[in-house]
Amino acid sequence: MNSNSASLGSQNPAPEHSESSLPALHAARSGNRRSTRSEATRTHILNTARNLFNEYGTAAVSTNRIAAELGMSPGNLYYHYAGKRDIIRDLLAEMIAQYAQHWEQGGAGDQVPGLDHLRQGMLHGSELAWRYRFFGRELVALLRADAELATAYRQAYQHRMAQWSAAAEQLVQLGLLQPQSPLPDLTAAVWLVTENWFTFLEITGEADRPDKVSRQLEVVYAVLEPHLTPAARQLWKDRDRDEA
Amino acid sequence: MNSNSASLGSQNPAPEHSESSLPALHAARSGNRRSTRSEATRTHILNTARNLFNEYGTAAVSTNRIAAELGMSPGNLYYHYAGKRDIIRDLLAEMIAQYAQHWEQGGAGDQVPGLDHLRQGMLHGSELAWRYRFFGRELVALLRADAELATAYRQAYQHRMAQWSAAAEQLVQLGLLQPQSPLPDLTAAVWLVTENWFTFLEITGEADRPDKVSRQLEVVYAVLEPHLTPAARQLWKDRDRDEA
């Protein structure tokens, strides 16, 4: 499995990690005096660790192995990170920052703000779920093992749920969504499908089949379709055609 | 967290493991000459291991710890199980057998066969997902570590998916379901909600809140509702009222 196969054909690929987008968890520990070169090294460490965690799981990957993969001495790695736990925390901070980026930009440039923004948000979320897929697989164990990580995750979860709900409310106001079920239940269903799709494909042994990966959006659409207005359905279909 | 809080108020609690219901994976290894007493000891070992795995995860629970919890010598445990891997395989076999039980019984005694059968199947599935919740959490890692376990799981998954699809087809024939989206996508969405609900609650820190546990059926209903005929919706509401 290779993280280069992560693309889901979104027109808005997740931007690479940039210092300005990092939340407090990362920024507080990293201080302000770090050089650009040191920052680049940390990014390099994080990317390498993420690829190894995705491939082998966090339990099987030691800091020594990460250092070896980077062609770096363990001592040099420890200059940047006290241990695996800190690397995992920074990877969560990275993922959270990248999730936030889409939703905080708003849908200002979209032709059909509400629906496009939601759809792009789902594709963006998919890419991140794939990019950091070791989190999806190991989340219960990781959160149990590190209370600070659990707090950061749960705060981000509350925040994202609120953003999803706001996006759904916006769709109602724009006359695109006419929910036939309670909106929080509908939001939870879409969340569960989006967040668990890749783990589901890994469990069923289909994670390397591109047709299965792209099916995620169809399953989400099966949940949403009956609640969309005819205008919104047409917009969704047009977008499907444009992307094909 | 206590496995006694597993009840979801279903009228059809999962029957305890019985030898006749075990699939080939278990039966082939356990042989035919085992005494009833030996069988009872194995059941006792499996129940204790399951509770420990649910509480602490499989990585943190050694066979010595399982033996200690049972007040049994490690040697006596090894007489029954060669190691933790074999215990995990038997637990999967148990879970698969219990899943199968509901669906293979059919809905013969139901007043409203199709809908009640599906609804009971979801509640039964929920109970099993909770009862064996370490599987839901650790599945990717466990299947990667044991090819035999992965094969058994994937066969059972294919089988269950086929049963769900058959149940959905039956609902269409009974005039209770009028799918507005492709049936396989709808089935996948319901599957993802049902299978991931407890892990979701653990991640969000809400696994010990009964109101959150029972909300699962509401989220599933949010997915299904627009596709049900008015008659089916009335039946579902009546059932909700009966159970309240």
From TrEMBL, chains A, B:
Keyword set, alphabetical order: DNA-binding
A Pfam family cross-referenced in the UniProt record is TetR_N
An MF annotation (GO) of this entry: transcription cis-regulatory region binding
Is-annotated flag, keyword Cytoplasm? no
- Keyword DNA-binding in annotation: yes
What the entry lists under Gene3D superfamilies is as follows: Tetracycline Repressor, domain 2
According to the record, the residues making up region (Disordered) are 1-43
Q: Where is the composition biased (Polar residues)?
A: 1-13
Please list the residue ranges annotated as the HTH tetR-type domain: 39-99
Question: Residues annotated as DNA-binding region?
Answer: 62-81
Show the PANTHER family listed in the entry: HTH-TYPE TRANSCRIPTIONAL REGULATOR RUTR, HTH-TYPE TRANSCRIPTIONAL REGULATOR UIDR
Official protein name in the record: TetR family transcriptional regulator
- The record lists the organism as Nesterenkonia alkaliphila
